[in-house]
Amino acid sequence: MSFADMSQESFTGDAERAVLVGIDYKDAPESLLESSLAELARLTDTAGAVVVATVSQRLDAPNPRTFVGSGKAEEIADLCRSFAADVVIFDEELTPSQQSNLEKAMPRDVKVIDRTALILDIFALHATTKEGRLQVRLAQNQYLLPRLRGMWAHLASNRMGGGVGSRFGEGESQLEVDRRMVRKRITSIRRELEQVSRMRQTQRSARYASGVFKVAEAGYTNAGKSSLLNRLSGSDVLSYDKLFATLDSTTRKLALPEGREVTLTDTVGFIQKLPTTLVEAFKSTLDEIRGADLILHVVDASSDERDAQMRAVEDTLEQIGAQGISRILVFNKIDLVEPSVRAALSARFPSAVLVSAETGEGADSLIEAIARAASASEKVMEVLVPYSRGDVVSIAHERCSVLAESYDERGTALTVRVPSDLTALFEGYALSD
User: Fold this and answer.
1) CA distance 367 to 315
2) What is the pLDDT of residue 402?
3) Which residues have C-beta within 8 Å of that of residue 401, sequence separation ≥ 6?
4) In what side-by-side order are the strands of the sheet with 2-5?
């Protein structure tokens, strides 16, 4: 049992003051709690609040009534009074009853939220496209629905005693009205999201049908995926040093050394304890990862928590069914680490690529690694295409790697590296041994 606090003089302005709460599970390593609470502090900062105190309790399992023990709940309430806190943020998802009981134990006007609610709040701040906003609204309403009863508890407690009218309390009546409204809202958002998703799927299907090699970035939030996309493709996608700065997937063309183009897609960042409601709501965005031919697992090399972050990403990739896709491990922000750390990473992960999206170091090596992966599943063929089939030659240049090209009276002779889906097209023009 411990808590660390910071002096009130450290904070100025109108930012909300937050007390963070976590559980130190007896069968978990101590570093797990530390890294999780450190991440929760970063999430709190991203949401615009300041952390004034952090408190934890060692338990076998959460208390079913108040998540922490009753004595610890009183201690948290005292901290809220001492630091004039506005909100208490729990590091794990609270049940509706736990949240309601905790709010009763806290001083008046102190909010109690959990990690999921905090992440949803951040997502609401950063969603910019129509699809992104719909996905966030869906997750918010799915989270809200089971918690409506607690929100009307103050009305239920004011109902009259027995007798006429006691069976139809105002709180219960309003509760049912709100439940119907939220369910209708969820249905409406899902319907609208399906329409937007169908449009995205049409665009995605066109890319898939083109045979273009598809590369998707996956990684922990704030690993520098958007910055890396900008560095490799020469684009200007929004990138901030904040958690979940970008939520919507962005696809750009990437030219490989042999002149061939592939697509590179930036996707929403992952995080420890990623809420299942968000995984479901962002299904269409995560489909970009599932449909990729190659995944770049981007890791912040400068983070003290990189091992835990790598595990969280691998777990999420498995959760969305992308664990079988080929991948390249990419350690980004290598300009921020000491030479000894670079050497240790290279020794531990010999096939990984070390890059800096900020300085461009290692970018050429990463592009070469992508080119090798794109060529691995292809077949080298020698073909002779008649001049009457200029369309086949165009396809060779657009969708294959042309290794050699010459001309004679019969047509265009090509040595090409052909993707598997185009092999049948070129076999009709293959030169015999």
Assistant:
1) 26
2) 85
3) 256, 258, 259, 260, 375, 378, 416, 417
4) 2-5, 50-59, 17-25, 87-90, 111-114
Amino acid making up residue 389:
R
Residue whose C-alpha is closest to residue 366's, from 330, 407, 340, 313 = 330
pLDDT beyond 60 at 240: no
Answer for the pair 55, 23: CB distance below 8 angstroms, yes or no: no
Number of continuous H segments (helices) and E segments (strands) in the chain: 16, 14
In degrees and rounded to multiples of 5, residue 196 shows phi and psi of -65, -40
Residue with tokens 């906003």: 133
Judge whether residue 135 has pLDDT over 70: yes
CB 226 within 8 A of CB 265: no
What DSSP element (H or E) covers 85?
none
Alpha-carbon distances of 186 from 144, 179, 235, 243, 313, rounded to whole Å: 10, 11, 36, 26, 28
User: Of the candidates 137, 271, 282, 274, which has an alpha carbon nearest to the alpha carbon of residue 200?
Assistant: 282
Tally of CA atoms within 13 A in the half-sphere of 41 that contains its CB: 14
pTM of the predicted protein model: 0.69
Tokens of 311: 């595990």
